[in-house]
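hey can u run this one w/ zinc ion bound, need the structure tokens asap thx
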Amino acid sequence: MPPKKNNSIPIGFSNVGNSCYINSTAQALWHTPVIKQWFCTASMLKSIPDAQNDQAIAFSMMQDFLLLDAEEKKRSEENILCLSNTSKTIHTSKGKLPISGSNQEDAAEFLNMLLTSIQGLVAGVDVNIPMSSEGKALTFEDIFVGVWYKSSLCISCDELRIGPEPWTTLTVPVTEKTTLLESLASLVEPESFILENMLWCNKVQSKKDHIRYNSLGKAPQALIIHLNLFQSDFATGTTSKVNRTLDIPFDLNILHPCIGMTDVKKNYELRAFVEHRGNTLNDGHYVAYVRSGSDKWFLCNDDEITNMAKEEVSATLSQNSSTDNTPYLLFYQLEC
Ligand SMILES: [Zn+2]
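ok here u go:
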């Protein structure tokens, strides 16, 4: 066996004050190989335009990842980096971004903001990464964007309307389900729109009962799943955490009959996840579990990196885990 190299150990990110949501999300993105490849390619491109307003966050994350890439290549000992461009952009945004940086923020909201920002920044720019297995160039859309097909059937006139709906993270419910696959399946259960929820029918020119069927028309290379742990109570204006989780598999096959996918088999493997620790959205703490090298797992708690046995990671992903440490964002990648 060749000697173990230190560079499979992730580089820790220092916490610059409530920045664990940035650090853990960045670790998870960086340890999803297809995403890392995309960032490394995009960051080098001269054709990326100067960032405007809400694209600044994408631009600064790319700069930080460029530094991280250089650091990873040169280091011999484990070390620490500060994602200073990203945190500076957030801290100086003064209300121009949906998150402020001075508070603990929702990692899912940060991730969505980042992906939207990236999509805006690279619109019209070819950021294609070659995939070694098929030799096909992958675009932002191939890697990050999935599409729902939502078909609404009018009960009165049988008219079927099909609307594609793109997404970059898939939000799934955690209540009343025990496994991730069950929870995913619930997204394609037919929905009824009746009584006060009736939908407009163009043919009849009035509101009519409808049934909506959802199916996943396109699944991305990097499947990012957001477990909907936080539930808002609009009456009291508070958000509470659902302190339970699902059984989450390392290998996810979404050609489950219920998912409604009928094209090719999609086998995903878990590459990283962000865990929320604590009972509320606005305090608590985020950490990332990442897979690095050949099936080695690490816990990245800001600048503290800990080796994890796969059994320990597996226990964290189990529904029976009895702590308030809860997996929150899951990063799967299509097996090549
Ligand atoms: Zn109708």
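The CA atoms of residues 98 and 113 lie 8 Å apart. anyway lmk if its weird
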